[in-house]
Fold these 2 entries.
Entry 1:
Amino acid sequence: MTTAVREVSVFGDGIAYFNEAADLLELDSGMRRILTHPSRQIIFSIPFQRDSGEFEVYTGYRVQYNFARGPAKGGIRYHPGVTLDEVTALAFWMTWKCAVVDLPFGGGKGGVTCDPSTLSTNELERITRRYAAELVEVVGPDKDVPAPDVNTTPQVMAWFMDTYSMHVRQNVPGVVTGKPLEIGGSRGRVEATGRGVTICALDEMKQMGLVPEQTRVAIQGCGNVGLYAAKLFSERGCKVVGISDVTGAFYNEHGIDVTGAIEHATKNRGLEGFKGGDRISNMELLTADCDVLVPAALEKVFTVENASKVKAKLIVEGANGPTTPEADRIFKQIGIVGLAEIMAKSGGVTVS
Ligand code: NAD
C-alpha cells in the first residue's frame, strides 16, 4: 500500500495499522494475505420512488470481510460519503472488534450512499426495504447480521427484519440487532456503544491518575454514541466542556448542561441554536482545552494538519477510524494516549 493510496483510502489506513500489528506478531505472509482481503463485496442499485412520484437510484453496499470466527456482523450506514472503500474498512474493523471482545462473529458492514436529511420517512422505508430485499440470500442469523450505524435507527432495523422475514416466509428476529424492544431488541442496546466508550475511558483515566471530578471531556459527534457517552461521563462526575454535531460545535469551560443539550438536539434534530456554550468551529473543538477527547462521528478526523495541536491527554475513539496512521505517530511522539476503537467502541456489538 503506497503512501499516496493511504492518504485517500480509509481501508488503506486500516491496512497500515494491520501491517504494524502483523510485524509485531511476526505473522506469516499467507495469513497476512488472507486477512488483508475481504471475503465478499457486494454492490447493487437501489431504485425507489420519491414521494413526488419521481424515480431515483441510489447505490447500496454490503461487505462481508471475514467469516473465520462466525457469521459476519456489522452496521448499515446511510450517508453521502459511503463508498466501497469506506464500507470495506468498516467491515475490516468489525472483524477485529468482535475478535478483541471474543464474540463468535466475523466482520461485516453495509451502507447506502444517500443524504437521509433530504429523505422523508416513507422514502427511507422504501430504500431500506429494497436494500434488504437485495441481500436476502446473503444475510441471516448464521450468515451475516446487520445492525445500526450512522443515520440508521431501530426503526430502520425493524423494516430490514420485516422485509427479510417476508421473503423467507417466517419471522426471523435474529437477522438484525438493534431493533426495537417490542420486536425482540435487547434492553440497553441503544446506549451500549456510548456506555462502552465511557467504561473504557474511565478505566484508562484511573490508570493515568485522572480523577473524574477534575476531568474535562470534549465529544465530537452527538449522535447515538456521542450523546450517551456525554450523558454517562457527566453522570460519573466528569465535566463535559465541548460537544458538536454536523450543525456546529459548542464549548463551555464551566461545563455543558448535557441533559439540556440532549433535549435540544432531540427536539431540533441537531445542536444548532444551542445556548449552553460558546459557538466554535468543528475544527476548534478537536483542539480545544480538555483532558479527554472522544471523536464519535466519522473517519479521518485526526490528520497531520491537526494532530500536533490536540491538547487532550487521552483520546477515546468512539467512531470508526478517526485517527490516520500519520496522526497516530504524532500522538505517540507527543505522549497522547489513544484507546483504539476496536476496543473502546465494542459495547454495542457486545450487548447485541
Ligand atoms: P449517528 O448518526 O447517531 O451520529 C453521528 C453524529 O456525528 C451526528 O450527531 C452527526 O451530526 C455527527 N457528525 C457528522 N459529521 C460531523 C462532523 N464533521 N463534525 C461533527 N459532528 C459530525 O451515528 P452513531 O451511531 O452515533 O455513530 C457514530 C460513530 O460510531 C460511527 O463511526 C459509527 O460507525 C460508530 N459506531 C456506532 C455504533 C452504534 O451502536 N450506533 C456501533 C459501533 C460503531
Entry 2:
Amino acid sequence: MKRTNSLELSKRFDPIYPAGHSNFRIPMEATEHRVFVKRAEGSRVWDEDDNEYIDYLGGQGVNLLGHRHPEWVAAITEYLEERSPYFAAGVLNSRDDVAVGEKLLRHIPCAERIKFCLSGSEAVQIAIRLARAYTRKPYILRFAGQYHGWMDNVIGGQLNPTLGGKRLPVESPDSSSLDDPFYTRGKGPGSVEQSFMLPWNDLDALETTFRECGEEIALVLTEAIPTNHFCMMPRPGYLERIRELCDEHGVVLCFDEIITGFRLGLGGAQELVGVTPDIASYGKALAGGVPFSAVAGRAAIMDLLRDGRVLSPGTFNGYPMGMRGVLTALRILERDHGAAYAEMDRIQNRIEQGITEIGARRGIPVRVQGVRGVFSVLFGLDSGTELYTDEDLQQLDFGQLVKFWSSMQQEGVLMFLGGRWFMSIVHTDADVEQTLEAAEECIADL
Ligand code: PMP
C-alpha cells in the first residue's frame, strides 16, 4: 500500500480539524494515516496514493446505490441543466414533491403524511416534538447502546445502575468519559433526565417502566433492529409487546429508520419486523447520496404540523435537487419488483457465508450478525450465538475485531468501525472473491 500523499495530507489536515472530519471524537481511521478519496465509482474508491479499495463503509449507510450510480448522476445532471438546487422552501414547490410523496406513502407502512428535513438528527427531533405535542406528556423512552443523533436530549447517558426509581439514565462520570463514545460535556440542564433508558430486550424493565410511568411517557424511540448496536435483533415478541404497551398507555412509537429505511427494503425495518410504528425517521440513503431526511407517520400526529400547533421549519427542508435524488433512488430500488435488493442479498450471503466458513476452517470463532444491507463481523463469538443482550457480547474480542478492520483496509477492503459492513446494490461477484481472499489472509493472521 502506497502512503506518501496520504501521510502528507494527514499531517496538514490534523491541526485544522478536531474530531476527524467533523464526525465523532473516536478515531475512525483503521490506519495511522487518513484516507483521502480521489475517485469513487460503483463499489470502489481510490485514494490520493492511487490505492484501490472495495467499499463496505458505504458512507456509513448513505451509499446504498454505490458511488456515482449512472442513473442517479444523469438525473441530477439533467435537473441542474434546468433548475437551481434550491428555490424557496414552503413557497416554490416542484412536481417531484408530489411524485416522491406518493411513492413514500405507498412504500412505508406507517406513512400517511411526510415531512422533510436535512439530517437524521433533525428528523428525530421533529418526531420527539410531535410526540410530546400529541400526547402532552414529557418523557422519551430509549434503549442503551442505540444512537439517535447528536442533540442534547438523545446523546449519551448510561443506564441507571440501580434501575430504581424512574430508571433515568445517568451521565458518564467525567473520568471515564472517553470510554463512552456518546459522552459530551456542554449539554443543557436537564437534557439527560428527559429520557428513560432501558436495556434492550429486557421485557421486565419495559413492563415495569410502563406500569409505573407510562402516563408520563410521550415516545418510545428505537431502531426496530439496532444496527448501531451489533444488529442485535429484538427477541421474538419484544417489538409486538412495545407496540401493545404504547397503545395501552397512549404512547407514540417511533422507529428510527435512519439506517434501515430503504436499506432493508422499500418498507424498511417496519415492514421486515411486521410491527407498524406511529411515526418513523429517515435519512442516510433516502436521496441516493445527498443530505436529506424525513419523518413519516400517522395523519393524526403529523397533522399537528398542518394546524400550526407544531413547528419544524428549515431553509433547506425538502430542497428540490435532493427531492430529485429521492425520486431517482426510489425508481432504481423499485425496478423489477426490487431486483436490486435480490441481487444485494445474493452478494451479501456469499460474503457472510464465506467469512463464517473461513472462521470455522481456521478455528477462529466468528459470528456474522445482520440484516439485509448491513451486518457486523464479530470475532470471539461462536457462529451459532444468539445475540439479544449485552451479556451475549461478553466473549466479543475487540482486539481481533480492530486488528481485522485495520488489516482488511491494508488489503484494500474498507469497512466501518466496530466491524460493521454496509452493502450497496452494486457490489459484484468480483468484489466477493477479492474480499474473501483478503479475509482469508487477515483471519489467518489473527
Ligand atoms: N439515528 C440513527 C439510527 C443513526 O444511525 C444516525 C446517524 N448515524 C442518526 C440518527 C443521526 O443522523 P445524522 O448523523 O444524519 O444526524
